[in-house]
Design brief:
single chain, 11% strand, TIM Barrel, 7 strands, 11 helices, alpha/beta
Length: 296
């Protein structure tokens, strides 16, 4: 296996050689050339996951096989019927789904609490049996409700679940989503709201999914937010802004710097790629994203 220093040297030589012959390579081209020359090699500071829905035209079996070959350890946002396929390829599901009532009907509305509690409590034993310890959840839409009332309601509903979650060792992960472009009226659309909910729930078994794409759209200041609130973030997602495309130099976020900030907080969980590839070779885009995020 080649060392990281060898990879860096090779990347430098590739870029330098290309510059001598023609225009310098872009970040995207440099990573692609490095990968072609040396093959996959990961540093291990970031645990890599990916959301299959972004590649749903690729059968799950094939996708798992390709992801495993890239060094990806998890394929996520999958339910119980799909978990056996992950096991077959030695993959985990860093953030499962399989409970709840969707994005728009969540814990901010008391009329859904009974059904939400019932569905999550039914899922917890299945998660334990599969060897998983997280599950995604959502705030729900505002529907005219104030953010303060939503906080009160969501805390009440989640506190009903926390004894069972703690008993089973399951962490509920509520996703931060943007309400500006993709999820109009969604309540948990700012990190400050989610952090306050974490404080009110008061359990280490309730945390946030800090989706970098969504929060760049809603509030920016990504690295400072991660540094300030990392103790409340139990999972991370990527995505290019604008357009949720590849996370390369075609968009506005500096993902190597963001990944380094995450590593510097001491985070040991997973970072999942959740961008929608625009190129014809979608798996090449995924491989490139792993290289970009695999900081030393």
């Amino acid at each position: 296996m080649k060392s990281t220093s060898n990879r860096r040297s090779a990347l430098k030589n590739i870029v330098g050689g290309a510059a001598a012959l023609s225009a310098p390579l872009t970040l995207s081209q440099a990573f692609a050339a490095s990968e072609k020359a040396l093959g996959p090699e990961l540093n291990g500071k970031i645990r890599h996951s990916v959301c299959h829905w972004c590649y749903n035209k690729i059968p799950l079996d094939e996708f798992c096989r390709e992801a495993k070959a890239m060094g990806i350890q998890s394929v996520e946002l999958l339910g119980p019927n799909e978990w056996p396929t992950l096991k077959k390829y030695g993959l985990t599901c860093a953030l499962p789904n399989g409970a709840g009532m969707g994005i728009t009907k969540g814990f901010n509305d008391p009329q859904y609490h009974d059904e939400l509690v019932k569905s999550y409590e039914a899922l917890f034993p299945k998660l334990v049996e599969a060897g998983y310890n997280t599950v995604i959840c959502f705030s729900g839409n505002r529907n005219g409700m104030s953010d303060e009332k939503g906080l009160e309601n969501a805390a009440i509903g989640l506190k009903r679940l926390m004894p069972s979650a703690e008993k089973h060792g399951i962490t509920m992960i509520m996703e931060l989503l943007n309400s500006k472009v993709n999820h109009a009226d969604y309540m948990c659309d700012k990190s400050a709201w989610g952090v306050e909910l974490c404080k009110r729930v008061g359990s280490e078994r309730f945390k946030l999914l800090y989706d970098i794409y969504h929060m760049q759209i809603m509030e920016g200041d990504v690295i400072a937010t991660i540094k300030k609130n990392h103790q409340y973030f139990g999972h991370y997602h990527t995505g290019g802004v604008p357009g949720r495309a590849e996370i390369d130099d075609s968009q506005e976020l500096n993902y190597p710097a963001i990944m380094k900030a995450i590593v510097d907080t001491g985070y040991k969980g997973f970072v999942a790629q959740e961008f929608i590839p625009k190129r014809a070779d979608k798996l090449a885009s995924l491989k490139q994203s792993i290289q970009i995020c695999d900081v030393a």
